[in-house]
Design goal:
single chain, 12 strands, 39% strand
Amino acid sequence: MILYRIPTQAQQETGVFSVMGQDLKTGELCAEIRIAPGLMFDLPDSAFLFSFSIPSGNLKNQLQMLHDKHGTQLWFLIEPLRHLFCLPCPDATGQKLTAAQSLALQAGAYVYDSPDFLCKYCVISSPGELLIHLFDTDDTIEQKIKLAANIGIDNIIYIM
């Protein structure tokens, strides 16, 4: 499995750049992808890129289903999850938060595990509304990478 780590600062790039992938079994750099401004990935024509940036359903089941359908053409894009949702949320749209905003919401809140989404969450209640904050930690990112490896996904792009 090859992991491509994209630093957060890459989102400000104005020109095409490349990132080397690391084979997680050997630790060696082994492959390269080109990235255009706006984080547009130059992937093989047959590639199917799946992002779980707005979670819905069980991540393990979704990855397994997509791997069964696309095999080695499946690429998994991991972006740290930091979203705030108003409940109920029938359309699964939420507000994307900065890292600082996410940490502020987590401070003093009870934090729970979401096994279906492989992330953490906390519930915020205020007069007249109930909010849920879904977020990733280093541990949940690692869990997602391990899950992808166990399923047999060959390529992961991780926007740090």
